[in-house]
Amino acid sequence: MGPGLSGSGVLPPEPPEFAAARQRNKVSLKVSCDPTHLSGLSGASGIEELAGILGASITFRLETSPPYENVTWSKMDGNKSINIVKVTFAEPCGHQVSLPAFLNRVNISKDCRELHLSHLKQEDAGRYSAQIVLPKKAELVESFDLQVSSKYPSHVIPDVLPLPSGLESAFCPQQSGSSFYPPWKDRRLSQP
């Protein structure tokens, strides 16, 4: 059994001076992530939330795996849904853009699962839906909420890194698949 552990595996109560020292040693980290990789956040309604940057690109990725008969991507405009592009499942995927504002800005991945929208504009923000027709004619709908901002959002992790009990790390996904881990030295965030 490690030092300081009782027989039940529970830490004994901390003396007040240790609790005060631990409170002083907490660190607030401000982590900026590329918002095109902040997908996968789902609200209570199951709608995936995406954050994009003005002038950059964003990827809408379907959770439903291929094959598909076709996928019709649309954007809500007030109370009506306007078709953007229809994707046909083939080798390679075929697609036809039906909304002029999206011409030359839409690409489809080789597996037909992703819609890439480039040169984001403020008016691109809103609700997007993908109506998926499966091979046996069953239909599914996946929805996305896109927010477009003029700069990278910062995500603050307040007071979550209690360093005396060991190192904790925060990570931010990157395009290469690696992660960002803050450089720690002597239980403090070291400066670059």
UniProtKB/TrEMBL annotation:
Q: A cellular component term (GO) from this record? A: membrane
Keyword terms, alphabetized? Glycoprotein, Membrane, Signal
Task: Tell me which domain of life the UniProt entry assigns to the organism this sequence originates from.
Answer: Eukaryota
What SUPFAM superfamilies does this protein map onto? Immunoglobulin
- Give the subcellular location: Membrane
**Key word Cytoplasm present:** no
Q: What is this protein called?
A: Uncharacterized protein
Organism per entry? Naja naja (Indian cobra)
